[in-house]
């Protein structure tokens, strides 16, 4: 198990070394609340989810450095880490943006031990990306998560812990509370506490009565118990299965009142959803639009509005989807309301090679349209998102005509690795 330490904050520090050792808080979309913290910010007492407006005084008094979430940067840095891990191991399963399971070679000709193998992974990721990581090694995923937890919390581990055949494994498990075990949520923790089970070691020992475990904890609970005993119950997945539904949703930077403004935002979300669709080589049959108003609005009780459309022929052609999305927005829109959020959902997703075409349907996804979208995606991947964009999104507007719905990102750092015009300048 490989886990990047304080990933968002660490990404910011790679390109701004002056932030090293200082408390950092990463804010959510529209700079709403804290979604990630450096260790220094945690020690300063800044809680996860802290609203920015409510903790503004605390941030100032405690010297907390605020950063707007920079997802293009974080996503690209994550991809770099995962590619390094793929080079150093046989197979990986990307678990989240900053975590992955990996299958290590049993042939240790290049290393004296699995610990040395883990240290090599840690060293190369740190050297090649600047990001600190922790590595936990064990025969099962659940134990690997435990090992990673130990490696991260104990300086003597030097960021790597191997629990394979470790003589003190039970002592470690005794110190791990139930809620820190992978797959054990709050509800299961409460249920286990009723039976006197308080930590990972006590849960591990229930293997002596599998019938009881199966009865009270179901199959998933039994798998956790087996994995705590070093018996792997799930293989690695490459995590590349196509999604059956694609959702793109954002809060607006300011409440919107005009249909044209809402349509611009929806067109942008449709464009992003279509990019995700094409990235997995798929096409969609259904599109739905949801507009979220102010639930405290006194006009009427209803504050969520939606509309959907089923296409005769599945497509991933952005102009076609934008045209439908704008029409659905007009249908769902009600005058006199203020809107705070919009969401676009694509469903009925199938591979782009497995669909029956209708030559006479006006929504036909032609080869010419396919090549156009392919070229557009290539340019955006090479030169940065929105290098090319449709006029319906309004992303070309500047100055006073700038989109009203764009997110507030008052503390945004540069997208150093995905925009040519934001590359770092190194002075000789």
Can you describe what's shown?
- By secondary structure, this protein is an alpha+beta fold.
- The mean pLDDT is 88.
- The strands form three sheets. It has a five-stranded mixed beta sheet.
- It is globular and about 65 Å long.
- Helix 4 packs antiparallel against helix 5 and helix 11 (259-279) packs antiparallel against helix 12.
- The longest helix has 21 residues, at 259-279.
- It has 13 helices and 13 strands.
- 37% of the residues lie in helices and 19% in strands.
Describe how the helices and strands are arranged:
Layout: E1 2-4, H1 7-15, E2 24-27, E3 34-37, H2 39-43, H3 56-61, E4 65-68, H4 71-88, E5 91-96, E6 99-103, H5 114-129, E7 133-137, H6 141-153, E8 160-162, H7 169-174, H8 186-194, H9 200-204, H10 210-228, E9 246-256, H11 259-279, E10 282-293, E11 304-315, H12 318-332, E12 339-347, E13 350-351, H13 367-383
Parallel strand pairs: 2-4, 7-8
Antiparallel strand pairs: 1-6, 1-7, 2-3, 5-6, 9-12, 10-11, 10-12, 10-13
Helix pairs in contact: 4-5, 11-12
Features:
single chain; 428 residues; alpha+beta; five-stranded mixed sheet; five-stranded antiparallel sheet; 13 helices; 37% helix
Oligomeric state of the chains in view: single chain
The class by helix and strand makeup works out as alpha+beta
Order of helices and strands: EHEEHHEHEEHEHEHHHHEHEEHEEH
Radius of gyration: 25 Å
Query: How many beta-strand runs?
Result: 13
Helix content: 25-40%
What would the principal axes of the Cα set say about the shape? Answer: globular
Query: Poorly predicted ranges (pLDDT <50, ≥5 residues)?
Result: none
Task: Compute the average pLDDT.
Answer: 88
Give me the side-by-side strand order of the main sheet.
5-6-1-7-8
Q: Major beta sheet, specifics?
A: 5 strands, mixed
Number of helices: 13
Q: Kindly, what is the distance between the CA atoms of the first and last residues, rounded to a whole number of angstroms? A: 40 Å
Relative strand content? 15-25%
């Amino acid at each position: 198990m490989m886990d990047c330490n304080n990933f968002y904050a660490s990404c910011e520090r790679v390109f701004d070394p002056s932030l090293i050792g200082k408390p950092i808080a990463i804010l959510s979309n529209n700079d709403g609340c804290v979604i990630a913290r450096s260790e220094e910010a945690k020690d300063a007492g800044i809680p996860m989810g802290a609203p920015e407006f409510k903790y503004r005084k605390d941030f100032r008094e405690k010297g907390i450095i605020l950063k707007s979430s920079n997802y293009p940067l974080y996503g690209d840095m994550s991809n770099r880490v995962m590619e390094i891990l793929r080079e150093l191991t046989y197979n990986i399963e990307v678990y989240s943006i900053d975590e992955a399971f990996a299958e290590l070679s049993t042939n240790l000709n290049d290393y004296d031990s699995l610990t040395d193998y883990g240290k090599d992974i840690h060293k190369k990721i740190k050297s090649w990306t600047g990001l600190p990581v922790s590595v936990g090694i064990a025969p099962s995923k659940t134990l690997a998560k435990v090992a990673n937890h130990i490696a991260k919390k104990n300086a003597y581990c030097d960021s790597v812990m191997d629990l394979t055949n470790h003589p003190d494994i039970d002592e470690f498990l005794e110190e791990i509370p139930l809620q820190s075990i992978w797959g054990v949520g709050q509800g299961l923790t409460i249920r286990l506490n009723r039976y006197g089970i308080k930590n990972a070691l006590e849960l591990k020992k229930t293997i002596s009565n599998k019938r009881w475990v199966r009865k009270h904890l179901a199959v998933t609970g039994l798998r956790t118990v087996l994995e705590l005993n070093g018996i792997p119950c799930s293989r690695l997945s490459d995590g590349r299965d196509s999604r059956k539904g694609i959702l793109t949703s954002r809060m607006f930077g300011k409440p919107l009142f005009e249909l044209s403004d809402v349509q611009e935002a929806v067109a942008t979300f449709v464009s992003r959803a279509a990019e995700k669709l094409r990235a997995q080589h798929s096409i969609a049959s259904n599109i739905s639009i949801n507009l979220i108003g102010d639930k405290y609005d006194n006009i009427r009780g209803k504050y969520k509005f939606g509309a959907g459309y089923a296409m005769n022929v599945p497509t991933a052609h952005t102009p076609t989807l934008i045209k439908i999305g704008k029409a659905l927005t007009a249908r769902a829109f009600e005058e006199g309301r203020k809107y705070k959020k919009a969401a676009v959902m694509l469903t009925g997703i199938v591979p782009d090679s497995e669909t029956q075409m209708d030559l006479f349907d006006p929504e036909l996804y032609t080869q010419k349209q396919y090549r156009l979208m392919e070229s557009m995606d290539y340019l955006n991947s090479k030169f940065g998102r929105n290098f090319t964009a449709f006029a319906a999104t309004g992303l070309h507007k500047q100055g006073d005509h700038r989109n009203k719905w764009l997110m507030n990102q008052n503390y945004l750092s540069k997208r150093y690795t995905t925009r040519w015009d934001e590359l770092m300048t190194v002075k000789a």
